[in-house]
Write a structure and sequence with these properties.
This protein has about 425 residues and is α/β, with parallel strands linked by helices. The protein folds into 3 domains: about 20-220, 2-enoyl-CoA Hydratase, Chain A, domain 1 (Alpha-Beta Complex); about 235-355, no CATH class; about 365-424, Beta Barrel (OB fold (Dihydrolipoamide Acetyltransferase, E2P)). It is built from 14 helices and 16 strands. It has helices spanning about 1-20, 35-50, 65-80, 95-105, 135-155, 160-170, 175-180, 190-200, 225-230, 235-255, 260-275, 280-300, 305-320, 335-360; strands at about 20-30, 55-60, 85, 95, 105-110, 115, 175, 185-190, 205, 205-210, 215-220, 375-380, 385-390, 395-400, 410-415, 420-424. A 6-stranded parallel β-sheet has the order 8-5-3-2-1-11. It is elongated, with a radius of gyration of 36 Å.
Length: about 425
């Protein structure tokens, strides 16, 4: 009995000391954007609250926005929990913005057969590597800024500064194996359990990591972050732009519908808000607006579809150009370009065109429709008055000349409840 009691006491005293550590894990797959920055900021807070030994960021990205990358790097610097960026799975890589994030982590790791590099300036203020010439002043400023930024990161984390700068200036890239030799990263791990074994005993910010056999807790995105990430795509932004165009013009062609106008304004506000972060090509946007103008003008002008054809071409080119300044991962697929062009052309030709033309058709109901009709006289009509039968009703009628009952007259006008007629 005494032995049992002693065992229980020892278990209570030393049990927590032998419990396995806990490690947080997040996965980034795709372009780096505002949603990614928000997700990682929250994950760092959750990992700190859980008292995790470290937070592993498993990442496979082609690149992303520089502003979002800056936020992630700043969060890494201020984090109370050690950060480990693990470029995985095999075949994946850390391109462009991913290079900055990998180098900024406390521990940089890669899986075999992965790559890292090509960190030439991503996007800042509407510029990107696809749209900037090195001879351009703004492009040179951006390149210099990105080079200095990655140099400070590499210096802080004691990694290969020269290679880091070359990845920006010369778009250098390398494999995981070479990155380890060049001291760009700290280790290569085949999977997360292997990574935990290699992290064990490593000193990070004055803290010795104990990760062998650690319990890995995945920190998923919450619903708001999923929605935020879904919205921040060129496909969604294109949909918002189309809804804005369709809704506002539909409201103008069908006054009083209300819903199209409200939906169009809301979509336009969302589009403008998102475009403040994800840069647009102004020339592409101008071509899209020109296409809309050509579609509308062709409804009134007898051009036999020439302007509509020009509008389709302008819309197609504008949609292609709209996101060509965005970094990797934020380009609009060609399937979306073609489908949105066809839908827009059909929308203006079959829906808006008929709606606008309908407003200029002659009226088919009401008293105005009686003008020009030929009717029979019910009682003698003279300047003093008489009666005619029209559209199932008997109306007062006047005429400059006398007209006998039974004759046929033509309605020439209306004044109040009295019709003006003339003999045929």
């Amino acid at each position: 009995m005494k032995r049992l009691i002693c065992s229980l006491i020892l278990g209570l005293l030393f049990g927590p000391c032998v419990m396995a550590a806990q490690v947080g894990l997040v996965k980034i797959d795709g372009a780096i954007g505002p949603a990614t920055a928000n997700y990682l900021a929250r994950a760092l807070e959750v990992a700190a609250d859980q008292n995790d030994a470290c937070l592993i960021i498993q990442m496979d990205t082609p690149g992303g926005l520089l502003q979002s990358t800056k936020e992630i790097v700043e969060n890494f610097y201020s984090a109370s929990v050690p950060t480990v960026v693990y470029v995985a799975p095999s075949g994946g890589g850390a391109g462009s913005a991913g290079v900055f994030i990998t180098l900024a982590a406390d521990v940089a790791a890669m899986a075999p057969d992965t790559s890292i590099g090509a960190a030439h300036p991503v996007t800042l203020g509407g510029f990107s590597e696809d749209s900037i010439s090195t001879n351009d002043i703004m492009g040179q400023k951006l390149e210099n800024y990105a080079s200095a930024f990655i140099e400070t990161i590499a210096n802080k984390r004691h990694r290969n500064v020269e290679w880091a700068k070359s990845s920006v200036v010369a778009s250098k890239a390398t494999t995981a194996e070479d990155a380890l030799k060049l001291k760009v990263i700290d280790l290569i791990a085949t999977n997360v359990p292997d990574l935990l074994k290699q992290l064990d005993g490593r000193m990070v910010n004055g803290k010795v990591l104990q990760t062998v056999g650690a319990h890995v807790v995945f920190i998923p995105m919450v619903m708001s972050e999923h929605l935020f990430k879904w919205f921040w795509h060129p496909e969604v932004m294109t949909m918002l732009l189309l809804v804005a165009i369709y809704g506002i013009i539909a409201e103008m062609s069908h006054p009083g519908a209300i819903f199209p106008g409200v939906a169009g304004v809301l979509a336009l506000v969302l589009f403008l808000y998102m475009s403040s972060t994800l840069p647009l090509n102004i020339a592409g946007l101008a071509l899209i607006l020109l296409a809309v103008a050509l579609f509308v003008i062709d409804i009134f002008a007898p051009t036999h579809g020439v302007l509509t054809g020009g509008g389709i071409i302008a819309f197609f080119l504008g949609t292609i150009m709209l996101f060509n300044r965005a970094p990797a991962g934020y380009h609009l697929p060609m399937t979306w370009v073609i489908s949105s062009t066809l839908v827009t052309a059909a929308f203006f030709i079959f829906f808006i065109g008929k709606g606008i033309r309908a407003q200029f058709l002659p009226k088919r109901a009401g008293a105005e429709t009686m003008i020009g009709q030929r009717v029979s006289v019910q009682s003698r009509i003279d300047p003093a008055g008489g009666k005619v039968f029209i559209e199932g009703e008997i109306w007062n009628a006047v005429s400059e000349a006398a007209i006998e009952r039974g004759q046929t007259v033509e309605v020439t006008g209306r004044q109040g409840l009295t019709l003006k007629v003339k003999p045929i």
